[in-house]
Amino acid sequence: MVTLAAVRQAVAHLRDAHGVSERRACSVLEADRSSVRYRSRRPDDGEIRTRLRELSRQRRWFGYRRLHLLLAREGLVMNQKKLRRLYAEEKLQVRRRP
Prior knowledge:
Blueprint: H1 4-18, H2 22-29, H3 33-37, H4 46-58, H5 64-74, H6 80-89
């Protein structure tokens, strides 16, 4: 399976090197034009990620649910599912006690 980023690079290479249109490059590579043109609209979560890392360093045994409450008290309100996704991406899972 090829990633979407690799497909985008291949389409860009075909366009630049051979001077073909985007439509032609996508048809040769059998890629969807909508997938090649897609740009994410997800907002930047840099501030939330840094604050989440700081809180998890201070309170090592707090999980994402308790950190969610602390962030909400500070005014950083968000969906709990989003916070769990960020928590997992930052690899902040609490280690089990022996």
